[in-house]
Each structure stands twice: as structure tokens, then as C-alpha cells.
């Protein structure tokens, strides 16, 4: 729209003598010619040749140069083959030559402006040559920038592919290590627990061995799910339902069977708080009891689940150990990962020793 208006106004000024040789034609006709040039310029980005035809005729007949100037620039930005560029340049030379002959035949101001060789050459360079060269430069620059963008995109895609390949290799290596080391050791633990359960005559020992075997088999099941995720990250791995507060009593019973005296307190009116909050609360209790087993051995602990108006609070606190168990190896990332899990859902986690020598872990989870 803007290009058409500019061509119309400048053409009207040229044909009426403000920026060129005044025409003897009546103003309605000159306005119509300028409007025709403006309409051709309006659609010139779709097809530039109609504007070039209008510009050539108007330049030869009236020395009206704006349409030819714009058409020359658009031709430079569009033409790609050397033959078409050469043909366009040859046509422009022919138009300028014909305009020079017409100007010499008409005489007067028209001959002074475009009829002499020097003025005709100057007008030809200014109206056709420079716009055509500028259009060719703009097209070449666009192609260079497009090639640079394509190259950058290709390099980025290759970098992403290399990173994905390295990540997949690392995941496969971790999966192999977990399978060869952890799964093997847990399997041996389950086998020994089964042998102990069958071979012992003590009922309490047999029950403890059966519990250890069940826990080991569950650990192998969970480990198999983790290995499936590591080996095939792009595929959906079938997994069982994640534990929630409904499974909390089973978790507490297992800890009781291992020698911990546990008491559960539910405070507030129980209500549905969302699966994410319940799963997070379950993992908080699970990690807290794991730490009790590691650091306190056989002791007493309290598990409090509080239903607050806008949150779910879980507090696990244990007494000082009665008899210190053999120390277990520490990963060093249990509380760190748990804090990240709680903060990921917008909650807070606080873990600190108690004045009496025990330990307390408190988590508040938005519900």
C-alpha cells in the first residue's frame, strides 16, 4: 500500500513538472497515468513485470521515471539467472535509447533533459542501473543471511543430536552398572533371605527373613522399572501405581518389623488433597524412616500427618537410639533429593536434630 502511494505521488509530481519535464496532457489524463503506475506498484511484490511495462512506456512517452526506477530495483531482488539479468539490462538500455530518440524529436525542455547523450546516460544510470545493482546486492545479501541461518540451524540440530547421543550412552552405562552391581547384590540378598527362611527353626528369624525377601523383591521390581526408563527414555515404560497415604500403614508395618516402635497420629479432618501431595508425603515418610534405620537403629519414632486448611504437614521424629545399629553406607543425597521433591510442588522441608538427641523431619506440602 505504501509503495503504491509513493509511486503515484512521485509520478504525479514528475508528469506535472514539479520533478521533471511538464507534460502538455490535461491533468485528468496525467492523474490517470500516475494512478495506473501506483496500482502496478501496489501489486509489484507479486509480479514486477507489469510495473516495468508501465514504467518503460511512461519513461519513453513522458520521461516519467518513478515506475521504472522501482521496477528496476524489484527486478534485481527477484532475478537469479545471469541470462535474465542480462536481458533485463538490455531492455533497459533499449528503453533509455528510445526515450533519447523521442526526446530529440520532441525538442525543448524534454530534449535538454533526456535528449543529449550525457543526460540520457546519467538518467539511465540513476533510474535503471543503480536500482538494478542495489536490488542484486540486496538479493545476494538475503541469500547469504539465509544460508548462514540454515547453517546455524543445522549445527544446532547436530549439537542437540550429539548431546542426545551422549546422554543415551551415559544412561545405558548407568543402567548396565546398576544391573551388574546393584541388581546382582539385591538378588543375592533375596536368595540368602529365602535360604535363611527355609533353613531356620526360629519363627521370629523366619519371619524377619521373609520380610527381607519381600522387601528385596520389591526393590528388584522398582529397579527394573528404573532400568527400563534409563534404557528406553523415549518410550513409555509401564509402571505400577505410585504409593499414596493409603499405603502408609504398610510402610510403617515394615519398619516396625525391623525393630522400630512407630506411632502414627492423624490430625485434622482427613480429606482428599490430591495425588501429588499424597505421593510427596509418602516419600517424605519413607526417606525419614530410612534415615532412622541408618542412624538410629532400634528406637521409637512418631509419624504425624496433619490436614491443615491449605496444606498437608508431615512430621517424623525419632527418639535417641536405644541400641545403635551397624552403620550403613550413605549416599549423601537422600535429604537433598527429598528437599527438591518437596520444593518442586511448592512445599518446604525442615530437618534438624532435637534437643534430646533425636531427629525431626518436617514437611509442609500445599494441598
From TrEMBL:
All copies of domain Signal transduction histidine kinase subgroup 3 dimerisation and phosphoacceptor, residue ranges: 170-234
Residues spanning the signal sequence: none
EC number in record: 2.7.13.3
CDD domains cross-referenced by the UniProt entry: HATPase_UhpB-NarQ-NarX-like
Database matches in InterPro entries: HATPase_C_sf, Sensor_HK_TwoCompSys, Sig_transdc_His_kin_sub3_dim/P
Keyword terms, alphabetized: ATP-binding, Kinase, Membrane, Nucleotide-binding, Phosphoprotein, Transferase, Transmembrane, Transmembrane helix, Two-component regulatory system
Catalytic activity: ATP + protein L-histidine = ADP + protein N-phospho-L-histidine
Name of the top EC class for this enzyme: transferase
Claim: Membrane is one of the keywords in the record: yes
Pfam families tied to this protein: HisKA_3
Membrane spanning residue stretches: 27-44, 51-72, 84-106, 118-138
GO molecular function, one term: kinase activity
Membrane keyword on record: yes
PANTHER family: NITRATE/NITRITE SENSOR PROTEIN NARX-RELATED, NITRATE_NITRITE SENSOR PROTEIN NARQ
Protein name: histidine kinase
Protein source organism: Nonomuraea mangrovi
Amino acid at each position: 500500500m505504501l509503495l503504491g502511494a509513493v509511486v503515484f505521488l512521485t509520478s504525479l509530481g514528475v508528469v506535472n513538472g514539479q520533478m521533471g519535464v511538464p507534460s502538455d496532457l490535461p491533468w485528468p489524463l496525467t492523474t490517470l497515468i500516475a494512478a495506473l503506475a501506483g496500482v502496478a506498484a501496489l501489486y509489484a511484490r507479486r509480479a514486477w513485470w507489469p510495473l516495468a511495462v508501465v514504467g518503460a512506456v511512461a519513461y519513453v512517452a513522458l520521461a516519467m521515471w518513478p515506475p521504472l526506477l522501482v521496477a528496476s530495483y524489484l527486478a534485481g531482488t527477484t532475478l537469479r539467472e545471469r541470462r535474465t539479468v542480462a536481458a533485463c539490462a538490455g531492455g533497459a538500455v533499449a528503453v533509455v535509447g528510445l526515450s533519447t530518440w523521442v526526446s530529440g524529436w520532441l525538442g525543448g525542455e524534454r530534449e535538454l533533459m533526456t535528449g543529449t547523450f550525457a543526460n540520457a546516460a546519467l538518467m539511465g544510470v540513476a533510474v535503471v542501473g543503480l536500482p538494478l545493482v542495489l536490488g542484486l546486492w540486496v538479493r545476494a545479501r538475503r541469500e547469504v543471511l539465509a544460508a548462514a541461518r540454515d547453517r546455524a540451524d543445522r549445527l544446532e540440530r547436530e549439537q542437540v543430536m550429539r548431546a542426545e547421543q551422549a546422554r543415551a550412552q551415559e544412561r545405558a552405562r548407568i543402567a548396565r552398572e546398576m544391573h551388574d552391581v546393584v541388581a546382582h547384590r539385591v538378588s543375592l540378598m533375596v536368595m540368602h533371605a529365602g535360604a535363611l527362611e527355609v533353613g531356620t527353626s526360629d519363627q521370629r528369624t523366619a519371619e524377619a527373613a521373609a520380610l527381607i525377601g519381600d522387601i528385596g523383591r520389591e526393590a528388584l521390581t522398582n529397579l527394573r522399572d528404573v532400568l527400563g526408563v534409563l534404557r528406553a527414555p523415549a518410550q513409555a515404560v509401564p509402571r505400577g501405581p505410585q504409593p499414596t497415604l493409603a499405603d502408609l500403614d504398610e510402610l510403617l508395618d515394615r519398619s516396625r518389623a525391623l525393630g522400630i516402635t512407630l506411632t502414627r497420629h492423624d490430625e485434622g479432618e482427613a480429606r482428599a488433597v490430591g495425588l501429588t501431595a499424597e505421593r510427596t508425603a509418602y516419600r517424605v515418610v519413607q526417606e525419614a524412616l530410612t534415615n532412622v534405620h541408618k542412624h538410629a537403629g532400634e528406637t521409637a519414632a512418631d509419624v504425624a500427618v496433619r490436614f491443615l486448611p491449605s496444606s498437608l504437614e508431615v512430621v517424623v521424629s525419632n527418639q535417641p537410639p536405644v541400641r545403635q545399629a551397624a552403620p550403613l553406607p550413605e549416599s549423601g543425597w537422600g535429604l537433598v533429593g527429598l528437599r527438591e521433591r518437596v520444593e518442586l510442588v511448592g512445599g518446604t522441608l525442615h530437618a534438624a536434630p532435637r534437643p534430646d538427641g533425636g531427629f525431626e523431619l518436617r514437611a509442609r506440602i500445599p494441598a
